[in-house]
Amino acid sequence: MSKPLVEVRNLSKTFVRQGGEEVFAVNRIDLDVHREEFMVLVGPSGCGKTTLLRCIAGLEDPDDGHIRVGDQVVYDSGRGVLVPPEKRRISMVFQSYALWPHMTVYDNVKYPLTTGRSRIPQAEIRERVEQVLATVGIPNLLEQFPKQLSGGQQQRVALARALILGTDLILFDEPLSNVDAKVREQLRLELLAMQDRLGFAAIFVTHDQTEAMILGDTIAVLGRGKVAQIGAPRDIYARPANQYVADFIGSANKLPVFASAKRVDGGGIELDSPLGPLVTTHEQPDLDGDGPAVAIWRPEQFSISIGPEAPQEVNCWQGVVTARLFLGSHEEIIIDVNGTQLTVWTTEALDLDARGQRVWVHVDPKNLRILNA
Amino acid sequence: MTIEAARSLQDNDAMHGLPRRRTKPCATALDRISLGVALVLALLAVYPLGLLVTELFWVDGHFSFDAIVNTATMPGLVVIVVDTVIMVIACSLLALAIAAAFAWLNERTDARFGFLTDTLPLLPFMVPPVAGAIGWVLLLSPRAGYVNGIVRALAEPFGISLREGPFDIFSWGGLIFVMALYQVPYAFLMIVSGLRSLDPSLEEQSRISGAGLFETLRRVTLRALGPSIAGAVLLMAWQGFALFSVPAIIGSPAGIEVLAVRIVRLLTFSYPPQVDVALGLSMIVAALVSVTWIVQRKVIDAGRNSAFGGKAHNIRIIRLGAWKWPMRGLMLLYIFAAAIMPLCALIIVSLNGFWSLSIKWGRLSLDAFRTNVFEHPITALSLWNSIVIGAVTATVGILAAALISQYLLRHRSGLARGVDGALKLPAVVSHVVIGVAFVIAFAGPPFHLGGTALILGMVYLVLYLPQALAATDAAVGQVGVELSEASRLAGASDMQTFRRINLPLILGSLVAGWSLMFTRVAGDLTASALLSGTGNPVVGFRILEIYTNGSFAALAALTLVLVAITFAIIAVLFAWQRHLMAWSR
């Protein structure tokens, strides 16, 4: 693996609450981002993703650690290095677009070209601005003021402004949160295509796990200032490291399981749960011997059937339908099994009442994973 | 280390609203310059006052409390303090109500009459309070006032015969009325600026939730305008406590004496001047204004509304229907009362040659202007001096204020707060006391600046910087921080960001602040009386001289010329500012 473009080592940042209590927004995080990689930082409010991004940008001063971007060490607590944001070769797109209202689109986008020491001729500036505006899909808006544009257009201008210098790294702070859903989908695809074509590395912060999976080459799931898991979307979805990640990325059915595991004929392990015995074919070698554990499986791996008899012998329960939700591409059915709410996603057309019907649900042992709670 | 479930992290989601410990950016060139400017000006404010206080309490080589004793035992102290407080509260409330109503009408309804209602409420800025006070005396003086004369003439045919009145400007009502007239522009500016930068979705949200017009106003708009209103109240309190001309001209003949007037009398009308009691009274004013300042700081700190937040939005105008023209009429009536009527009185008296109800219509002439102003060497010189010194002081002052406000926004160190306090200190001290302090500190050895333009510029800067700072404080607080951050990430240094992003966005406030400072400096009375002389006269000095031993016609003529020049300069500035701020419409 080649040397990463961005290297974050042991980074910490604390804030002081009203009352004096110190809170770790970023808690000794290590992170690598490679050239042309689309890295997504995802997590709920307060997990530290935005603080981490702002530390890399230089908008926050960390308390400890080391950050390198390209050939430049931009922060090192040991050597007392702190490079101000204007000297870092990084661009950023903000959630509120941060377009300067007193300047036209043209002036907004050309601004990064006018801040350096070297004087670029006006003709070349014009050409580059027109080119980047065409790249982001709004070639004819040069003379407009931000106030006259729609949300999606404003965000494209912000993106153009970030692209114009051709920096190797672009930071995104929840840029699509303020844009409506259809425009968001459109912009995502365009962003992916642009990143692919222009070849910049991106660090993208979002709280939306769907967006994270769509956009990221790599996802870093953050919680409480630390990285809970980092990996490709498929890997994180299929093999979450712990319950927190399983809950946050995608949906999950979960049942606490108890330690007494025993081998079963035909391969697999049987564990005890509030709903009775569970069988899984997954070995979990890194499971803590005595710690609490939980069994996880995805709703789309959960099958539903109607009939008087259990369709399978293991991992099969009878429950009552409490809700049926139509989501267009699939149906979500919530079932109460002895007091526990479980969710099924199905694309089958089922002859079910919305509520109250007794059904059987079953999960294949190979889809049941056991994780640390 | 285990990671708890996402749900239990919700209690940590206050992170976005956590009062961020101010990260200390490394000191940039801009920071150093701003701090330097702030320190120099703070020193300029504190040194003379410190010297004065020292000379007061350190008499003949030992500590002395005589000053405090003399102040506490001053006859009529309680009455004066109470009268002052009543006057300030009454006129500020009245002015706030008028200004808020006009601001809302102008910004949120279709009563807006374009350029007229946008800028005419600011007309009183260009009329120095002394001109307004004299004008209203000419109009409502019980015997010779023009309005009274007209009313009496109209009442005659109905059999009502009056020897004087019916209105008497020399009363509580008259005093509060004229004071409020000249407070309105301060409040208007602050509130309009606040309204313009409010996110209208706040109000729309309230309307959609079922709240009627007035409820929305009360619960949403007024609350969100907190900082602007607090800033307006502070400005008006400063002005109210410090103003000398209006209470002297209107209050004193009515038997209402306020602190500012008494302080001047102690320093100029008694021999030897009772500096110790004057200082003691100034301390009382300081205490009163400090209370207002603390409240304003709390309101600004608590709810900083990020206004120009990088997302553009449009405002929906409320249609007033049948109320539109009556409301417009009201706004125009204010302008009439504040500017046009007093100016007309001044014009009549100056053209007539003297103040009398019998106007010689056939013999009106510009003689008064010629002899008293343009051909009078001292008066002409005083005009020129006031304009030049006014322009220079206002330019230096407003730029310094912008730099300092920006600095104080980002730095909350003990030094920053100390400097903030020092710069605003002169506001709570009477102008006369500051004048005396400057005489003691700079007129003689070792600086020998007595009688120069420099000492005048310095004292004006110290006197009027607090007002400029109040305006720039609010203005810089309304520019969203991400606008500066985006600029830094685009490669611009702190200095470039200030010049290209922050300054243009607060330009409207800067121009208004400049105009304020210029008008105040050009029309300053009290400090000018002490520090200016026939060698280096300014208009304030001349006005006081003429008021004591000249004619009303000469007074009117000089005041009118001052007003005309101020008006011209400011009109040009405002047109230029409208052009520059076109993007915000």
What features would you describe in this structure?
Chain A folds into two domains: about 5-245, Rossmann fold; about 255-370, Beta Barrel (OB fold (Dihydrolipoamide Acetyltransferase, E2P)), CATH 2.40.50. With about 375 residues, chain A is an alpha+beta fold. Chain A is elongated and about 80 Å long. In chain A, a hairpin with a 5-residue loop joins β12 (about 255-265) and β13. Chain A has helices at about 50-55, 105-110, 120-135, 150-165, 180-200, 210-215, 235-240, 245-250; strands at about 5-15, 20-35, 40, 65-70, 70-75, 80, 90-95, 170-175, 200-205, 220-225, 225-230, 255-265, 270-275, 275-280, 295, 300-305, 315-325, 330-335, 340-345, 360-365, 370. Chain A has a six-stranded mixed β-sheet, sandwiched between helices. Chain B has about 575 residues and is mainly alpha-helical. Chain B has two domains: about 25-65 and about 375-585, MetI-like fold (Orthogonal Bundle), CATH 1.10.3720.10; about 85-260 and about 295-305 and about 320-360, MetI-like fold. Chain B contains 26 helices and two strands. Chain B has helices at about 30-55, 65-70, 75-110, 115-120, 125, 130-140, 145-155, 170-195, 200-210, 215-225, 225-240, 245-250, 260-270, 275-300, 325-350, 365-375, 375-410, 415-430, 430-445, 455-475, 480-490, 495-505, 505-520, 525-530, 540-550, 550-580, and strands spanning about 60, 60-65. In chain B, a hairpin with a 2-residue loop joins β1 and β2. In chain B, α6 packs parallel to α12 (about 245-250), α8 (about 170-195) packs antiparallel against α11 and α15 (about 325-350) packs across α26. The longest helix of chain B has about 35 residues, at about 375-410. Mean pLDDT of chain B is about 80; it is low at about 1-25 and about 305-310. Chains A and B meet through α1, β7, α4 and α8 of A and α21 and α22 of B.
